[in-house]
Specification:
307 residues; mainly alpha; 4 domains; flat; cell projection; cytoplasm; SPMIP5_dom; Protein FAM166B
Length: 307
């Protein structure tokens, strides 16, 4: 190693004397950021950077070869020694391709100097955050634990009084929800039949989920009766009209036999491949609208069974 960082080769003053660089001058070919350089034309790169350094007297000269002021880059921590397993050490060598915190924002120094400063800054911030975390844990541990409100005798007495005066009304979530009761809008869980059938089209969330749950309860009850001849316990509370099925819901078709209304913006299968007719005539001639059954799924199943 004959670099300046490791004590070999000429020092900075000797290099500046050899290159005859004036104060604040960048070496031509420097790719770092130089303020206001893009607004100057007509002079060499060295002259422009020298004049910019003289004009911007309130800033430090931005030269690559300029040495850092005393105390500006002193490290606060003892950087870790290399053990073969640790990542950030005191002797980072050029060519290391791993990530170093804050390294992309450092310019104008040797690789080792920037590495040492970034590692020191990272260790300082980590120690500060660890101290804050430990202080917070100690504060939380020092406070008394909260007592559950159910242990309060006043709450217990009021709940007992409510139960005595309202024997038929549930307290909190004492009773289970009905099987076909729709969930609250915003519920992200799975609702059967609303995405695989026509039950989930063209209605509000409350109505869509109610129809999907009722259809699922109907199919479950029908399967249970077909297998065992009796209803399962979870289906016995479902209203009779749900178990028997609602003709209005199950026979409601999305694609009507008399065609779709013009300006309908939904998807119509095979519509994009039909030309030369009005929208109504085109949709009436499509298979999805022309079949006589309750839904297109039933029509497809009937054709499959025939084949």
């Amino acid at each position: 190693m004959t670099t300046v960082a490791f004590g070999g080769g000429p020092n900075l003053d000797q290099r500046r004397s050899f290159a005859a660089l004036r104060d604040g001058t960048h070496v031509p070919g420097y790719r770092g950021y130089c303020p206001q350089i893009k607004y100057r034309v007509g002079k060499t790169y060295g002259t422009d950077t020298h004049e910019l350094a003289q004009d911007t007297i309130h800033l430090q000269p931005a030269s690559v070869l300029a040495s850092a002021p005393e105390g500006l880059r002193t490290t606060k921590n003892v950087l870790p020694m290399a053990t073969g397993d640790n990542k950030y050490t005191e002797k980072m060598i050029p060519g290391y391709t791993g990530y170093i915190p804050r390294m992309p924002f450092k310019f104008g120094n040797t690789y080792k100097e920037d590495c040492d400063f970034c590692i020191d800054e990272y260790m300082t911030n980590r120690k500060f955050n660890d101290t804050k975390t430990m202080d917070l844990k100690r504060q939380v541990a020092g406070y008394p634990r909260l007592t559950a409100i159910s242990h309060d005798p006043e709450v217990r007495d009021k709940l007992n009084l409510y139960r005595d005066t309202h024997p038929n009304r549930p307290i909190l979530m004492d009773d289970k929800r009905a099987l076909t009761e729709p969930p609250v809008p915003g519920y992200r869980g799975y609702i059967p039949r609303i995405k695989t059938t026509e039950m989930g089209l063209g209605a509000r969330y409350n109505r869509t989920t109610k129809r999907g749950l009722e259809m699922f309860a109907q199919e479950t009850a029908a399967s249970a009766q077909r297998i065992t001849g009796t209803l399962p316990a979870s289906i016995e509370r479902v209203p009779t009209d749900v178990l028997q099925g609602s003709q209005g819901d199950s026979s409601k078709r999305l694609y009507l036999t008399d065609g779709m209304i013009p300006k309908y913006t939904g998807y119509v299968p095979q519509r994009r491949f039909a030309f030369g007719n009005t929208y109504g005539d085109t949709t009436r001639g499509l298979e999805v609208c022309a079949h006589p059954l309750n839904s297109f799924g039933d029509f497809k199943r009937s054709r499959t069974s025939v084949m």
